[in-house]
Design goal:
The complex is a heterotrimer of chains A (500), B (337) and C (319).
Chain A: E1 11-22, E2 25-36, E3 40-44, H1 51-58, E4 66-71, E5 74-75, E6 90-93, H2 105-113, H3 122-137, H4 154-166, E7 173-177, H5 185-200, E8 204-208, H6 212-218, E9 221-226, E10 229-235, H7 241-247, H8 257-268, E11 274-283, E12 286-294, E13 298-303, H9 309-317, E14 324-326, E15 330-333, H10 337-340, H11 348-353, H12 356-360, H13 368-381, H14 397-410, E16 415-419, H15 427-442, E17 446-450, E18 462-467, E19 470-476, H16 482-490
Parallel strand pairs in A: 3-8, 3-9, 6-7, 7-8, 13-17, 13-18, 15-16, 16-17
Antiparallel strand pairs in A: 1-2, 1-4, 4-5, 9-10, 11-12, 11-14, 18-19
Chain B: H1 3-8, H2 12-29, H3 33-59, H4 69-87, H5 90-114, H6 119-138, H7 147-154, H8 162-180, H9 182-192, H10 194-199, H11 204-229, H12 240-250, H13 262-282, H14 286-304, H15 316-319, H16 328-334
Helix pairs in contact in B: 2-13, 3-8, 3-11, 3-12, 3-13, 4-5, 4-6, 4-11, 5-6, 5-11, 8-9, 9-11, 12-13, 12-14
Chain C: H1 2-8, H2 12-38, H3 45-53, H4 56-70, H5 78-90, H6 92-95, H7 97-120, H8 125-143, H9 153-159, H10 170-186, H11 188-198, H12 200-205, H13 210-236, H14 247-257, H15 269-288, H16 293-318
Helix pairs in contact in C: 2-15, 2-16, 4-10, 4-13, 4-14, 4-15, 5-8, 5-13, 5-14, 7-13, 9-13, 10-11, 10-15, 11-13, 14-15, 14-16
Classes of the chains: A alpha/beta (500), B mainly alpha (337), C mainly alpha (319).
Amino acid sequence: MDNRGPRAGEPVVVAKGVTKTYGRTRALAGVDLEVRAGEVLGLVGHNGAGKSTLMRVLAGLEACDEGAVLVHGKEVSGAAGPRAEDFRAVRMAYQETSLCPDLTVAENIWVSSRHCLPRLGWRRAASDAVRRRLDEMFPGHGVTPRDRVEDLSLAQRQMVEITRASLVDRLDLLILDEPTESLGPDAARSLYDYVRTLTAAGTAVLLISHRIREVLSVADRVAVLRDGAVTAERFAEGLGEQDVLTLMGAHVAVPSEQDRAAARAAGDAADRPVVAELRGATGPGLREVSLRVGAGEVVGLAGLAGQGQQEVLERLWHPVRRDTTVVGTRAYVPGDRQRSGVLPLWSVAENLIVTAMRGLARQGLRRPAEERAAVGDWVERLAIRGGADAGITELSGGNQQKVIVARAFASTAELVLLDDPFRGVDVHTKTDLYALIRQEAAQGRSVVWYSSENAEMAHCDRVYVFRAGRVVAELVGEEISEERIIAVSFAESDGEQSNE
Amino acid sequence: MNIRTIVSRPWIWGFAAAVLVWAIIMAISGQGGGQTVSLALSLAPYLVVVGLGQMLVITAGPGNIDVSVAPIISLAGFVSVGVAGSTGSATVGILAGIGVGVLVAVISTVAILGLSVPPIIATLAAGLVASSVTLSLANGFTAVPDPGLRQLLNVRPAGIPILAVAVAALTGLVILLLRRTVYGRSLIAVGQNRRAAERAGIPVARVIATTYLVSGALAGLTGALLAAYIAPSADLGTRYLLDSVAVVVIGGTLISGGRAVPVGVWGAGLFFILLDGLVNLVGWSTAAQNLLKGGLVLFVLFLAGGGDRAGGTASRFRRRPRTAAATTTTTGDNTHG
Amino acid sequence: MSELLASALPSRARMRRTAPAVVSAVALAVMITVCASLQSDVLSVGGLTLVLSATVPLVIAAQAQMALMSVGDIDLGIGNFVGLVTVVSATTLVTSPLLGALTLIGLVAAYAVLGALIHLRRVPSLIATLGASFVWLGLGLFILPTPGGSTPEWLASLGSWQPAGFPAPLLPILVVALVVYLLTSRSALGVRMRGLGSNPVALQRAGLRPLTSRVIAYTVAGALGVLSGLMLASQTGGGDVSSASSYTLMTVAAVILGGGSFFGGSAVPWGVAIGGVTLGLVSVVLSLLDVQSNMQSAVQGVIVLAVLAGRVVVGKVLR
């Protein structure tokens, strides 16, 4: 499988005025983008800017509503929907991987590259090809073609996924979606080395990553996606991280001076009653974690994603082990609202009250009047658009998230656990919800808040920073800042990043 | 009544089909229709009671089904008649029948929750145990059903059996249970999205356990009443396995869970009983009965479809192949407001 | 070098996967030992033939069940389906072999159509196959209202074939397991089936239609169901639609015993063969132990639950 690309500089895939709407949400609002042979194009944008939708359209997985996608100047994506053969030379490595966990590595290669494997002896051919390419891309990978994907580490799966995408008889465009998210620095370096050999052979590479420094060091050009449209296209050379952030419209909700004051006041009261405590908790994903949550305190769990923060939330949600003490009732705000938040057949009101219903009920019987009053309060307080009687799935993502947050706070729970709930939520909603958290804490509620956005941690009284299942720093009050958290998160060797 | 109303009220289909079959029976037999209705109303309640239990189980979400109802009915029949015979009290007999149903359901529940056995296997195994006990009991069984209870079950003032009224009241209770109680709401939440329900603080295990126990109790009640009405036998409950699932499916309850339609169980139950009457009237064999029922279930199932959740206006994500649910990142990004 | 080492030493993950089959194999050995201690001629060729012959149709039906479970579905109609096949082979196949053969092929096609409808209408396989099981029952009763008929001569002679030197039932068990192994674990078709059970999204992205995978699995299951019915008929010499009704639970249990999963993605034909024989021997042991026939189904139910419980324990230890 060699890669014969087209001549350098010639456009490989072009998007012209592409739009895409899901329900009431406009994911793409007229995207114009050109990926040229032999270049690395970096694509950056906030969550919800439309990156994943654009990638799906460019990879031929979804048809666009308006506009056109051209592969080698030929229009291939009209209203009729994309055809697989037109996109055969466009390959994509997914962030969450596109592998079957129960199949072996070689079998997964067959699934995605079967048209360039022989009918007989495909297993051997696929094994040879994947082994060769893995050696080439990630020396020292430790993967054999006979391994089942589910037995591989996260980093190894990512390697196999990228290799899978690259194994094809003709590769014109390789789309890499957050390829280094779970790779160690060495693997990332060798991946980008390979990307350069690919581009030298004329293949185009579209790199999507939120690690802007990485994008700037690898890409030739950078395109900024914002609110479903490409708002800027620049040459990477001479561009700084700050410039890109400005282009992306980085807007971080800064806590007001009042909040700061409240946080300071809270930070002083170290001797307030303890609501929840972990004492040297050790187990899957956790090593010797000790932390304490006081009444009325907002405690942040920070650090890179997947360093043990969610395991702490899990311990607090199900305090079954002896090293965990939780006094009083708890409520949980999940981050992945599609999977573990929304009850899709119900209205806003029903979704909102389902937790509080238990506390309001008498002898197992609901009290509709009280429930209605509570729902009315919360719908108004958080300005949930659509009102109480709208179906939950008719709401936008931000409003759905408001309902899920309100569900937890409408209950009488003394401890509220937040599992990175504000990912991909718009700025206005976020600001409302930050204020809500501070108000509720002022009334004596405790909040444990895991967030992947370090800026959010500024709203906390105290922050524990996690790395590799350990608490590596405890920041209080004034010490909490984005820079500080990043510094501590990355402190020691960067090599620990690769999970598992 | 326009088409939208019919689509949004899925229980109408069962009643419509029942009326259709009733009309055919009248046309063929030429007898008064009232008698047919009265007979159907005295037979349907048994099916409705066990169907209500099955409906609660299916509402608990994908994979939930209770296949132990058939052996429970047979077993409860023997136990209740035996106990009623030895104590002389029909009430104690009925309670014993319900108790036996709960007991069998306890086995299933422990297996489902304690051993993480899928419900289908757990209830099948519990049912096997129950049918063994039934066979042992059936050997040399001599007690006869309580004549007082049998009379009561046959009382039909103005052509309407008392039992039908009682079961209608029970159906009303189930409706209230689903709408007005914490348990009912929790069950529906669990059926829609088990993970979300758990994160919303609902004790999922307790809700599921309660559901299977209630289903076992209702099957036990059915067995006790049925044995008094007909006579206890080892295959008293056999037909109720498919029938109970069928009346739930035809009644408009969502097979994938999260929406229960108790009234629909009545419509579908009447339809099934009348269909039996029609088949007997025409003189078809049990073979044809089985074919007709199996075919009907498949027809309604494939017609309604599983992923198609009627009533939802913004269900475009769920209208895609069910596989789309696994791509959380894409659906997540799509809905960002 | 590291690769050599990895393949030489079974990884923890591999042990976890094969543990259920190993547990069943141990149970099988115990069962045979118990049989042999109760009745010493069980270990002779004739004795093994007698003991194993009853398990052949069950094992083949279990392979059918496994084909469906590899895509994540469960078949609640396999028992009645096998019964229907015995009826067809004891009636139509005798009176007009061509029509009989066509009927059997039609039954396989019916399975394929059932699979397609289940996929296209997004209906739970559990309830659809439960409905289908009554269609099979009805058809069986329609053709042969009471057990009876007689199988074609060639089929009967197949059932009574007694080669010298090795127990005949072992042959179909091993051959079918081998064929199913080649099909589901080695071939591209098998990758499609397991891929559907494992991650349907990945299949779709790669341009493979999940519908095709599901139809393949149902066709394989239908064909194996027909084979199982023919084997059963060859042993009983007649047709009875309800002769295999216990297979529904037993096949699922055999797959689980062999290391399969309810969530799809894995194919364990050798484990299923071991699990099926183990389960089939349970009734032999029970009758040798003079357990009342009334209690046999209860004991089977309890054994299934016990084995599943054992699996939970083993899984926790190896995690």
